[in-house]
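Lay summary. Proteins are chains of building blocks that fold into shapes, and those shapes determine what they do. In this project we predict the shape from the chain. Here is one chain we studied, written as its sequence of building blocks.
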Amino acid sequence: MPESRRRVLRLPTRRTPKATLNLVVIGLVVVSATLGMLGVRGLSAAEAGTFSLQLVADAQAASIETHHDAAFFDINGAEVPDPMEGFRANPTPEPAAVVPVILPPPVRSKPVYINTNVTGNGMLMWPVPGGYISQYYWSGHLAIDIAAPYGNPVVAADAGTVTWAGWRNNGGGYVIEVAHANGIVTGYNHLGVILVTAGQVVARGERIAELGATDSDQPKLHFEIRKSGKPVDPMKYLPPPS
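And here is the predicted shape, written in a compact code that computers can read:
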């Protein structure tokens, strides 16, 4: 039979009454050999004792070798059952691949000249139609958060000039700022898509972006108002929520 179809089955060592039987057999072999050597070879008792000890050592070595030797069986290509099946530890599964969230490259922007011919009326409109306030203005949050689904329109709260449209490394993500030439600047943070560019003039209610969650854990608009450079509560300039 080809060597590739031979299987090796290693017999387990058993240290049970079989060891006692081996010792009895060894003893009989030693006595028989001793008597034979005395009668046939004319050996002295001391020489026979030395020869007997050598026989004991050889017999023990043969016994150990028999217990640990491998037996070969022709199994005609059949699969040998795994004797350790059920006792082997299951391998640790590989961790699932983490799919990174890749944002589009940041849009850079620079300060621009404010068109003073574009003036708002000072009455702002809600920048996220259909949104609701998820966080109000307070000392630790100098703006209001307006929550809505991803992609919800974001509109200019009043007519003005876009002074910033791009990424900001201040936690705002994609940001748009609009100057309204009456001392009021509105800021729109965490945008998903920007639809205007710096220097562009926008009308009141014009769609300028889509809601997103850049640098945020949920889709929302962080809407802030600065009056003469200082943050103020947007609720003082917005109509009551409908």
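What the prediction tells us: The chain has two domains: 3-73, 132-236.
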